[in-house]
């Protein structure tokens, strides 16, 4: 009888939250100096706290360095963490890393940037082709008269950014817009370089009518972006030069509100971080999860930017 009571007591203790299985899940951004990923971190940590039995670890390269990202992932494989959510900086490098993690019994999902032909279980984030289409359509809506345009991208090995570039081109195909040679440029997620490339593009093509950064990098250096846009402010106000930029971080909304850009198309990185924790937990529990989880887009112009800032 005593053994039965003792067993029942132990079972009851194990069923309480304090004895629940705990997990260490890691979210690995492309670059920790990119403020976009701060929101994914915040969403991850908030959801981990709500769930109670999860630790959200946030670590990636300081700057956009695919080799460093691969090494960080290898370190976490060695530590035998319980799950990885990776924003893929370079598809080829990360496919190998994902293979290594999977072989070690660690489930891997991707967020923000995918490696669809790898052994990742799920992707959480933007439909990047549609993202690019939305950027192109917004430019076409603002300037149906067309002209010459250029794009700025991040890393050349990032599949999500290549899809955005393709989406912009698809949206503008058959219109009066023509892409200049050398577009897109690649800033490797470096905000200062993104601003410099905007300046270089404007200098190389004085009649350039629009620039579309397919990520928010130039605006992540707000003072540098403002200095660039100030030189073209008259043309921006007159509708002769148009800036349609990806992402909707606070500093970007403020720049748009001050008239230094024409429109923003935003992602939802906070939600990506939340859903990453839910998805990894479901996988650990043996539940089936959707392979693709899209988090949606937001279109922001001068008409609704004030509401977005509240």
UniProtKB/TrEMBL annotation:
Domain named Periplasmic binding protein: residues: 25-288
Secretion signal span: 1-20
CDD domains attached to this UniProt entry: PBP1_tmGBP
Keyword terms: Signal
Location(s) in or outside the cell: Periplasm
Top-rank taxon: Bacteria
GO molecular function annotations of the record: carbohydrate binding
An annotated GO cellular component: outer membrane-bounded periplasmic space
Keyword tRNA-binding: no
Family statement: Belongs to the bacterial solute-binding protein 2 family.
Classification of source organism: Bacteria, Pseudomonadati, Pseudomonadota, Alphaproteobacteria, Hyphomicrobiales
Alphabetical list of InterPro entries matching this protein: Bact_Solute-Bind_Prot2 (IPR050555), Peripla_BP_I (IPR028082), SBP_2_dom (IPR025997)
Name of the protein in its database record: Sugar ABC transporter substrate-binding protein
């Amino acid at each position: 009888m005593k053994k039965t009571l003792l067993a029942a007591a132990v079972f009851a203790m194990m069923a309480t939250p304090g004895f629940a299985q705990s997990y260490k899940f890691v979210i690995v951004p492309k670059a920790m100096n990119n403020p976009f990923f701060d929101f994914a971190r915040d969403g991850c940590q908030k959801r981990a706290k709500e769930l109670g039995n999860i630790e959200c670890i946030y670590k990636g390269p300081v700057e956009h360095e695919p080799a460093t990202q691969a090494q960080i992932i290898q370190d976490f494989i060695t530590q035998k963490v319980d799950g990885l959510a990776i924003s893929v900086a370079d598809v080829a490098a990360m496919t190998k890393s994902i293979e290594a993690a999977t072989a070690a019994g660690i489930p891997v999902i991707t967020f923000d940037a995918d490696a669809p032909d790898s052994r990742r279980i799920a992707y959480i984030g933007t439909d990047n082709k549609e993202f690019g289409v939305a950027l192109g359509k917004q430019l076409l809506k603002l300037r149906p008269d067309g002209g010459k345009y250029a794009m700025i991208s991040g890393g050349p090995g990032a599949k999500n950014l290549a899809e955005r570039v393709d989406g912009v081109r698809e949206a503008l195909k058959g219109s009066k817009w023509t892409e200049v040679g050398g577009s897109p440029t690649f800033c490797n997620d470096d905000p200062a370089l993104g601003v410099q490339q905007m300046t270089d593009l404007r200098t190389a093509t004085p009649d350039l009518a629009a620039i579309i950064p397919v990520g928010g990098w130039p605006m992540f250096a707000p003072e540098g972006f403002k200095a660039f846009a100030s030189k073209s402010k008259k043309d921006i106000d007159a509708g002769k030069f148009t800036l349609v930029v990806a992402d909707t971080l606070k500093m970007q909304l403020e720049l748009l509100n001050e008239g230094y850009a024409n429109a923003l198309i935003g992602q939802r990185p906070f939600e990506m971080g939340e859903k990453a924790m839910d998805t990894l937990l479901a996988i650990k529990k043996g539940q089936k999860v959707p392979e693709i989880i899209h988090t949606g887009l937001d279109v922001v112009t001068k008409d609704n930017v004030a509401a977005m800032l509240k």
